[in-house]
Design a protein that fits this description.
524 residues; seven-stranded mixed sheet; 8 helices; disordered N terminus
Length: 524
């Protein structure tokens, strides 16, 4: 024992240690805690933001923030000692940029001009909004890094309002260690610290080395539920779920629902059990949000796929298709985005199709013959929806944000307008007023699929005016070029002084897909 003590003492002296000093540059012997995870942004609303981070030792929490870089004049503290830090900032201005720093009451752990967030736009307001879509992103692969980088490259200096996850966020078991290595470390600097993420659980998020599969399904206690915060109290819009497994939120004129397609409620109800608490909440939420311009649902298990999972033979996928998605369609959900199947698949605008692949009939279930590409290619006009809820839904399977698997022999599914089992990618959702665009950005930077969905366009209006009075005409659609029949102006809104009597003005897009008619009646 004496010899061991002497050797240890010699080692300490050689490395500059004494009984009263710590080794130089060794963070383990400094009072300042180490930042292990974060910061990352959660539960974003138009007036609030949750900021989370993790330290190696229990400390008190402080966030400094302000609207001017270098002048963080506002402070929010939590005086409880903890390693999992969670600070909610409130009374913020909507769609506003805030710089922030995180730390303890004594030390700042991260700050700088690149540490900032934007609050969400005011609920119900129209604008130009971008939302990222990452499906099955946590495999720690080269594809994962490339998809992330190409997504960020496409974004450039534009604002990303938020990003959503489609489940299986950390393979294989969704353990906390895997979350650190395969999710937080990968997305931390380029996405998590700037853009709020809204998560969704997959089957791998219910794996856990401490629990049996059945226990994990019945209890929301895996790492996924510890690592994320969700707007379960209705603070982001929608009906409060009071359940971290499923929730809803608003982003401007878009209403989102994040649903749990693998876990159970009350130890027996899946998403496809329509009498269960999750489905009952879905009905209440959709009923309360009928006035939203866009409604998007996202969950892990897709109702249609012939990728690495077959929706004809997979019990959960089949049951969701047969028992549940009809509810979403009846309430007018515009877009349903899922992961799980490690391919990319995108349907047409379809309605009331709940059978197997062999049952698909284009004439019966498709509401548009178009490819939806809206790029001037053959038969590529936008999908167009009217005001009625039964005017169709588009289904996207995008489980390729970290790897791609071998598809089923029946691939591609008959209902899909585009399918890809070769490339990894992530989605970018872009919404401007009554126009929705979805782009699939691949690991090499190529956008291999895109589609456009529009609502309440191709309108006819009758306008009464007086002689000599200027009239403003505005196209119902968003386009990069407008062609008016009686004006050389090419803007969306033109101002004219029409002659006495009845004059018909029309405006088209450049591809001949869209046309508004204005009948202007001018009295003498």
């Amino acid at each position: 024992m004496r010899n061991l003590f002497l050797l240890l003492s010699l080692f300490m002296v050689m490395n500059g240690w004494t009984q009263n000093s710590a080794p130089k540059n060794d963070p383990r012997f400094k009072n300042k805690p180490l930042l292990i995870r974060g910061p990352y942004l959660q539960v974003a609303t138009d007036t609030s933001m949750v900021i989370r981070w993790r330290t190696d030792a229990s400390t008190r929490s402080r966030v400094r923030y302000g609207t001017v870089a270098g002048n963080l004049n506002l402070v929010k503290d939590d005086l409880a000692l903890k390693t999992e830090h969670e600070i909610k900032l409130t009374a913020l201005q909507s769609k506003t940029k805030y710089y922030y720093s995180i730390g303890t009451l004594q030390d700042t752990l991260q700050y700088g001009d690149e540490i900032y967030f934007y609050t969400l736009p005011a609920r119900g307001t129209e604008g130009f909004y971008r939302v990222g879509v990452f499906g099955d992103p946590g495999s720690l692969s080269l594809n994962q890094a490339n998809v992330r980088d190409q997504f960020v490259k496409y974004l450039g200096n534009d604002l990303l309002n938020a990003w959503i996850l489609l489940g299986d966020n950390a393979y294989n078991d969704g353990s906390d260690m895997e979350y650190q290595a395969k999710f937080f470390n990968i997305f931390q600097d380029k996405l998590l610290k700037k853009y709020p993420v809204f998560p969704n659980p997959g089957n791998h998020d219910y794996h856990d080395v401490d629990f049996t599969a059945n226990y994990a399904q019945n209890n929301h206690s895996t790492a996924y539920y510890q690592n994320f915060s969700m707007p379960v109290n209705g603070e982001g819009g929608g009906v409060a779920s009071h359940n971290k497994a499923f929730y809803s939120f608003d982003l401007g004129n878009i209403h989102f629902l994040s649903l749990d397609s693998y876990g159970k409620e009350e130890s027996k109800y899946f998403l496809f059990d329509t009498l269960g608490p999750q489905v009952q909440w879905v009905k209440k939420d959709l009923e309360a949000n009928r006035n939203k311009e866009w409604v998007i649902a996202f969950f892990h298990y897709p109702p249609y796929s012939m990728g690495t999972h077959n929706s004809d033979s997979d019990g959960i996928m089949s049951a969701i298709r047969q028992n549940f998605i009809g509810i979403l369609e009846r309430y007018g959900v515009d877009l349903i985005i899922c992961g799980h199947s490690h391919v990319y698949e995108r349907s047409g605008l379809i309605n009331n199709y709940f059978g197997k692949e062999a049952d698909y009939d284009e004439k019966k279930y498709s509401l548009s013959p178009s490819t939806g590409l809206y790029n001037g290619s053959k038969n590529s006009c936008p999908y167009i929806k009217g005001a009625s809820p039964d005017h169709g839904t588009v289904y996207v399977v995008s489980g390729t944000s970290s790897y791609v698997g071998k598809p089923d022999t029946s691939f591609p599914h008959a209902a899909m307008r585009y399918s890809n089992a070769t490339d990894a990618g992530a989605g970018m959702l872009e919404v401007q007023e009554n126009r929705l665009d979805f782009k699939w950005i691949c690991a090499d930077g190529v956008i291999r699929d895109q589609f456009t969905l529009m609502k309440n366009v191709n309108k006819k209006s009758v306008i009464q005016s007086a002689k000599g009075q200027a009239v403003k005409l505005t196209a119902s659609f968003i386009s990069d070029k407008y062609i008016w029949n009686k004006s050389k102006q090419d803007q969306r809104t033109i101002e004219i002084v029409p002659p006495v009597g009845k004059t018909t003005y029309t405006v088209n897009d450049k591809f001949g897909c869209l046309k508004d008619i204005f009948e202007v009646n001018v009295s003498r």
